[in-house]
Write a structure and sequence with these properties.
mainly alpha
Length: 161
């Protein structure tokens, strides 16, 4: 049970870091937008859109983490997310063919975000599946064996220079 708590704590730290990164980006871009909207729109509107998209996805993961009763449920949820994003990236349309150019741009930005989300979901899943150091040490202690590094053989062959 202690190891589950440690995994959950590491997962929560990673998720909090990503949420903070997105929130900081949103705050920064909002302040830039208030100074000069025209300049902001030309240079950073896409970044603000991506930050909001990432924040909304991180909040959805946070809700699933809060609602889960065990790390296994979170792992199942993350696996579903990974499969969905992989399927969307591999089988979905790369370019949206809408009459609205902004809709087409938002689709392209979402695809960029989904690539990053896929990496984050895999990282979160890896955190849940990782072994705690104590788990690796215990089997050695139980068997009474130590992990001995084998000695290197002395090279007796001809020396090539």
């Amino acid at each position: 049970m202690e190891q589950d708590n440690l995994k959950m704590e590491r997962l929560q730290q990673y998720l909090d870091g990503r949420k903070k990164e997105a929130a900081d980006s949103i705050a920064e871009y909002n302040s830039q937008m208030k100074k000069s909207y025209l300049h902001f729109f030309g240079w950073h509107a896409d970044d603000l859109y991506k930050a909001h998209y990432m924040a909304s996805n991180y909040n959805a993961v946070q809700e699933a983490v809060d609602a889960a009763k065990s790390p296994k449920e979170i792992e199942t949820y993350l696996n579903k997310c990974i499969l969905y994003v992989e399927d969307d990236l591999l089988n979905g349309p790369l370019v949206k063919r809408s009459t609205s150019p902004m809709s087409n741009i938002s689709h392209s930005l979402e695809m960029e975000c989904k690539q990053k989300l896929l990496k984050d979901f895999q990282k979160l899943n890896k955190i849940l599946q990782s072994e705690v150091v104590r788990e690796r040490i215990r089997p050695q202690e139980a068997s009474g064996q130590e992990n001995v590094v084998p000695k290197e053989k002395k090279k007796t062959g001809p020396r090539l220079r």
